[in-house]
UniProtKB/TrEMBL annotation:
Source organism superkingdom: Bacteria
Short name of any one Pfam family annotated for the protein: AllG
This protein's name: Acyl-CoA synthetase FdrA
Native species: Coriobacterium glomerans (strain ATCC 49209 / DSM 20642 / JCM 10262 / PW2)
GO CC annotations, alphabetized: cytosol; succinate-CoA ligase complex (ADP-forming)
GO biological process: tricarboxylic acid cycle
InterPro entries recorded: AllG-like, CoA-bd, OXTCase_su_AllG_h-dom, SUCC_ACL_C, Succinyl-CoA_synth-like
Length: 998
């Protein structure tokens, strides 16, 4: 039976998950299991494996999906424990590293400002936009990542060329830059040979032979296997040739190519004739009979390396480079016995297939589902092909697929020889020889029992400086029964010799070459030469272990802990990538931010709503959030409406009020449409007193009702007699007294100053307002004493203000509205200018889209509950108080108020700090006027950018009260709620459409 666990928003590196899947599949009771991210490509692998469940199919690309096939449900717990342990171990190892990890390109550049190379090992389906971002940042690119569309490779390589940068890859398995090994690479001694090679094991084989012959390499530039195709037209090869020719420390050029397009091969050969240094080249699949002009042409990788060494040491190039085999062949296999190649390296497989095909006239190489040769039992397979690595680690890392095939082919009666490689170096399995040896012995013993002759013939690709110990690996495999040769070419010759077939190499002379294009080699750019003239400074995007070789040999690197942009949503990735091309957006956003900084909000009055909001006169109810009708409101918001009707005396009873509200006689309107905001239900009617905040920059105003205190209050849906009586007291006493007091001041109350003071005293202005409320009382208290109002009313107001810790919240809301409505007068950029909720919808507005609402279903808060209540009692979130977070306080500034973190269920101070650090990633900058002592005096976050929200998948966190889902009960707790991602994605789509981005 299949069991599925989906861990939301839990991105893990694909290679780590492949290794984890292998560990899980070894657990008792697991029939089979797969752990992968929920991408479309991975769902295809789940389906192919018979493991695609409905839950897995519904997963998002950023979700980690665990599917287990087992007869015992309890085994799933064992799987999850193993997964948690494995991932926790990775985390501990990561924390133990000396170098800092970063989570964005901006952080990476800040940490390593002189970076000159980005190394990628991320899923190919997400790679193109990230590679382009690196190029736009002026970085050369090394793409271990494969599965990138050919059209993207062409476009990106052209872009790199135009920028004077080098794009190595895609599918670039190995590289050496200034003697620093990169990715899956061996430890090669420094030298004067510069290699340009298609992908991975071709470079490894040639460079390792060079090393074992006593010479070394300065550079090995991988180009990717398709660079010499007609589509790509050798863009990277050509740029690398020109650069190495100009590179003073490179004395010999060595070119390694998989079978190229003939026309491109001819272009490259023509270009090589103009190189000022000795050149050796191999175009796998060709059997050159002579060297051409200035270019020495090799047939095998071994010959390539030996010619390069002779050129590098000023020795004459020999006419033939066939070396004697390490093993004498005393008996041969029958004609019906075949040679099979099971390779972890594609270039090694191609070389072996070429030699076997040439010797037996089998028709040449093919490329079909991993096969590079397939002819009547003569099978040579590249086990690193996509068909074998989808959902599984590369065979250089994990021997399981090769072991399975070794057993399969060894059991076939026609198989006579199994050729194989054992690749060492950084990134490779720590003991591949030890893993393969017992299987080789097992297969040989089984064949012997059946009276069959079977040979395993292999080569170790490595050097004596590699971490796996080259000599030990040779010994382990030889003792297991394998016949080991020094090179892949020699191993293939031995395999054919066991069939009684020799592989002579003709002696080569040199023929004249007439250059077809006599133009000079292009001048390499300063950026490219700087890469080759210095040790690489790397931003490593993906597999963390790729840092090891770089740091061990004196390079510098920073680890970018990459996750798919936009949670892997390819539509969003496309839109975000297109938006980056609009450089004016940042300037427009800065203009919006500047308006925030310019704002001068002053509390200037408290007046009846109808006196300043003409739209509210008559039977009109303002409510929180985007537009909604009475029937669609949640129960507590309906309760607030009932209370408002009773307060205004439009009805005499609850039943009459409900009847009126359903009759169509009452108009419902969002507070935000008339420069107003309202907490929770947001219900505001004509005779309710509202705070008036004026933004003195241009007179933009913001209105908000007065805070009622705590307990049973209208904003939480209560409408009992005590609620209505309090509202009428606020109308008749509190409002008028505050109005007179505030107008008695010379200019009103400067709220910027008050907030700057209160934030240093521990307020975040959504859940905690006690300091600000007391500071406000300090301002208005003396004014109240001076106005001509009877003493009893003054005392009532003073006591109410002193007792109402949250009084300033409503002031902050009106203040926020006066700021954002000033910002909204510039309809440019993509800064969030409104966040609000009505119990059904969460809604945002953004600067560039004016009054347009973007909606998504609202969430229910998480938090702490008063005694007797639980999450089952909670109402979905509602209210306009998210205006606080819109302007950077509240949940965005959680670190400012450690005193309330536990009250809202956010844990302790470290949790509050983590939240603020997370919110910082969504914003353009900081507000220098409102600095937070507990955040090293950084200013509050400023300017939520929808691009960052969508790209990171992190949504603003909002501090909020929790209302009971039934009207009349009131507040039952406090907590936090996340804004839903959907409204930001919809805003991004609309904004892109407004810019003509499809």
């Amino acid at each position: 039976m299949l069991y599925t666990v989906v861990k939301k928003n839990s991105y893990q590196d694909s290679i780590n998950l492949m290794l984890l899947s292998n560990k899980v599949n070894a657990l008792d009771g697991v029939t089979k299991s797969q752990i992968m991210m929920g991408t479309d490509a991975n769902k295809g692998i789940f389906k192919q494996s018979g493991l695609l469940t409905d839950e897995a199919d519904a997963a998002e690309p950023g979700d980690m999906v665990v599917v287990v096939d087992t007869d015992d449900e309890s085994v799933v717990d064992d799987v999850l424990k193993e997964a948690d342990s494995f991932l926790a171990d990775l985390s501990v190892k990561s924390k133990g590293q000396a170098n800092k990890t970063v989570e964005s390109w901006e952080e990476a550049i800040e940490e390593l400002p002189d970076a000159n190379l980005a190394v990628f090992s991320i899923p190919g389906e997400y790679a193109a936009p990230e590679l382009e971002r690196a190029l736009d940042l002026g970085l050369n690119v090394f793409s271990f990542t494969d599965n990138i569309a050919i059209e993207d490779e062409v476009r990106l390589k052209k872009k790199a060329h135009e920028k004077g940068l080098l794009l190595m890859g895609p599918d670039c398995g190995t590289g050496i830059i200034s003697s620093i090994p990169i990715a899956f690479t061996n430890v090669i001694r420094p030298g004067n040979i510069g290699i340009i090679g298609a992908s991975g094991t071709g470079i490894q084989e040639v460079s390792c032979i060079i090393d074992r012959l006593g010479q070394g390499c300065v550079h090995a530039i991988g180009t990717g296997g398709r660079d010499l195709s007609e589509d790509v037209d050798a863009i990277t090869v050509k740029d690398a040739i020109a650069a190495l020719d100009a590179h003073a420390a490179t004395d010999v050029l060595c070119i390694i190519s998989k079978p190229p397009a003939p026309s491109v091969r001819d272009e490259v050969l023509d270009m090589l004739q103009k190189v000022t240094k000795p050149v050796v080249a191999i175009f796998l699949g060709e059997r050159p009979t002579a060297h051409e002009g200035r270019v020495h042409l090799a047939h095998t990788l071994e010959e390539t390396a030996r010619i390069a060494v002779d050129l590098a040491t000023d020795h004459d190039v020999k006419p033939c480079y066939v070396e004697p085999l390490a093993h004498d062949v005393t008996r041969t296999l029958g004609r019906d016995r075949t040679v099979v190649g099971l390779y972890s390296g594609g270039t090694l497989a191609a070389e072996a297939a070429m030699m076997v095909s040439e010797a037996l006239d089998l028709g040449g190489l093919i490329k079909k589902r991993g096969f590079v040769l397939q002819h009547e039992g003569y099978d040579v397979i590249d086990l690193g092909d996509d068909v074998y690595t989808q959902g599984r680690p590369h065979p250089m890392i994990d021997p399981d697929v090769r072991i399975e095939m070794m057993r399969d082919y060894a059991g076939r009666k026609q198989t006579g020889v199994i050729l194989f490689d054992c690749v060492l170096g950084y990134g490779a399995h720590p003991d591949m020889a030890g893993s393969l040896a017992p299987v080789i012995t097992e297969c040989l013993d089984a064949a012997k029992r059946e009276g069959r002759e079977l040979f395993f013939v292999g080569t170790v690709v490595g050097t004596r400086s590699d971490p796996q110990d080259y000599d030990r690996c040779l010994k382990v495999l030889s003792e297991a029964g394998a016949l080991m040769e020094a090179t892949n070419a020699q191993a293939t010759r031995l395999a054919l010799a066991l069939k009684g077939i020799s592989c002579p190499e003709p002696e080569k002379g040199t023929v004249e070459y007439k250059i077809k294009d006599d133009s000079a080699l292009p001048e390499p750019t300063d950026a490219l030469m700087e890469l080759l003239d210095s040790k690489p400074r790397i931003i490593n995007v993906g597999i963390e272990s790729f840092n090891d070789s770089v740091r061990a040999f004196g390079g510098s690197s920073v680890q970018y802990t990459w996750k798919p942009m936009a949670g892997g949503n390819k539509r969003m990735i496309h839109l975000l990538s297109e938006l980056r091309k609009h450089e004016e957006i940042d300037d427009e956003n800065d203009r919006i931010i500047e308006r925030f900084k310019q704002s001068q909000p002053f509390l200037v009055d408290v007046v009846p709503a109808k006196s300043v909001i003409p739209e509210i006169n008559g039977k009109v109810i303002l409510h929180a959030g985007p537009p909604i009708d009475f029937e669609s409101m949640t129960n507590p918001m309906q309760g607030s409406c009932i209370g408002a009707v009773l307060f205004e005396e439009w009805a005499d009873s609850e039943d009459e009020a409900v009847k009126l509200l359903r009759s169509g006689e009452v108009t419902f309107m969002p507070c935000h449409d008339v420069h107003a905001v309202g907490p929770m239900g947001g219900i505001t009617t004509q005779n309710m007193p509202v705070l008036v905040v004026e933004n003195r920059v241009d007179g933009t105003v913001g209105y908000c009702t007065l805070n009622e205190g705590i307990g049973k209050v209208l904003r939480f849906g209560a409408y009992s007699e005590e609620v209505i009586d309090r509202l009428r007291w606020m109308r008749d006493v509190l409002g008028p007294v505050l109005s007179q007091a505030i107008r008695h001041s010379e200019e009103g109350i400067n709220l910027n100053v008050l907030v700057a003071r209160a934030i240093t005293m521990g307020d975040e202005f959504h859940q905690r307002n006690i300091a600000a409320s007391l500071c406000l009382l300090k301002e208005v208290g003396p004014l109240i004493t001076e106005i001509d109002v009877e003493k009893r009313k003054k005392e009532q107001v003073m006591h109410f203000l002193a007792d109402t810790d949250q009084f300033f919240l409503n002031v902050m809301m009106a203040m926020g509205k006066s700021i954002v409505d000033y910002e909204r007068k510039v309809q440019k950029g993509c800064i969030v200018t409104t966040m609000c909720r009505n119990g059904r919808d969460f809604a945002i507005r953004i600067s560039g889209m004016g009054d347009q609402w973007f909606l998504a279903p609202v969430n229910t808060p998480d938090g702490l509950y008063f005694t007797g209540f639980s999450p089952e009692d909670a109402n979905p979130d509602f209210g306009d108080s998210a205006i606080a977070e819109t302007i950077g306080v509240g949940g965005m500034a959680m670190v400012a108020a450690p005193g309330v973190t536990r009250f809202v269920g956010a844990g302790g101070f470290e949790d509050a700090l983590a939240i603020s650090d997370e919110m910082e990633r969504l914003c353009v900058t900081h507000n220098p006027a409102w600095t937070i002592p507990t955040w090293d005096f950084k200013g509050t976050c400023l300017g939520i950018d929808i691009r960052e929200v969508v790209a990171t998948g992190i949504t603003p966190l909002i501090n909020t009260g929790i209302a009971h889902k039934q009207a009349g009960v009131g507040q039952i707790g406090a907590g936090t709620v996340r804004a839903p991602l959907g409204c930001f994605e919809r805003a991004l789509e609309a904004y892109c459409a407004s810019l003509g981005i499809e």
